[in-house]
Amino acid sequence: MKRSRGNRKRTGRMLLVLLLTGIVLASACGSRKESPAMDTGSSTGGAAPAEGYYNESVSDGEFGRGETSKEETGQAQGTDIAQLPSDRKMIENVSIQLETTTFLETEGQMMALVGAYQGYVEWSNVDGIGILQQGNRYQSRRGSYTIRIPVTGFSTFVEELKSLGNTINTSVNRQDVTTQVVDLEARLKSLQMQEERLLAILAEADELQYVLELERELADVRYRIETNTAELRNLENRVRFGTVQLQLIEVIRPTEIQQTPVTVWERISTGFLNAAKDVGTFFVDLFVFLVVNIPYLVILAFLALVAVPVSKLYRRWRGRHSLAHPPVEGPDREKKE
């Protein structure tokens, strides 16, 4: 009987241990399943938000509005789609290559156009001193400008700017930063609330070590507030003002943009016209070369006029000298030697 009672006690203990082990394993599995959802819910993790992106390159084409699809805009970590504003935050960037035969005049018209649209030139650089001042050396001026224009008249400004010269290339780039702006605003709000709590705790702190730790934490929070504020202001400025990267090129003759020939006759006519233009350009360049180098040609002609009589006199003298002193041949030559 005693043995049976002992066996029952051991069996009960083993069942109790197995039950506790099963409870611990079940709780561990449940925590593992919940951890990914907790990780994806954090909004201040510092991960870069997804941004919509649109890019378009055209050659002497029209500047139009592009639409960003839902897949392009995406969703930033910690930013709910329902929190996004209805008006998207778009950054507009356009690059233009413009040819002109009157560099200074076109540059002045561009500056006046920028002022008319309440914009400003953020950066500029001009290389060269002009074709006319270089004589026969075709070293034209090139100007590079970074122009900022309010988005309210950005499209109209681009079209008017392209009309100032011969547009040979246009590149359009749009970037959707709505999720990034919303994420920065939420992060700033959280940091400001954290700053207020730290200030309230610091007001009641009395121990020196505790006060120093709070001040270090407060300085770190304020630094992050300033950093995020500067980033948000930069984004808002880029959203309010579109950017135009202009390259102004001085040329003697603007580039003719032609359509690609399709038929055989179009290819023949295009090739013939190009060959005729090349021949005409060759003769024009030859005429310019002769006119520019007239002083050198005059000197060469004078030297030629002098060299011809001198060479004739030398030949006559050489002939007379050979007749007066004929060459000695045969035994007489051996005797003289």
UniProtKB/TrEMBL annotation:
Q: Which Pfam families match?
A: DUF4349
Entry annotated with the keyword Zinc? no
**Keywords per UniProt:** Coiled coil, Membrane, Transmembrane, Transmembrane helix
Region (Disordered): which ranges? 31-79
- For the keyword Iron-sulfur, the answer is no
Where does the source fall among the domains of life? Bacteria
What region holds the DUF4349 domain?
A: 88-306
Task: Tell me which InterPro entries the record gives.
Answer: DUF4349
Q: Which residues cross the membrane?
A: 286-310
What residue spans carry the Basic and acidic residues bias annotation? 62-73
Query: Which residue windows are coiled coil?
Result: 174-238
The name this protein carries in UniProt is DUF4349 domain-containing protein
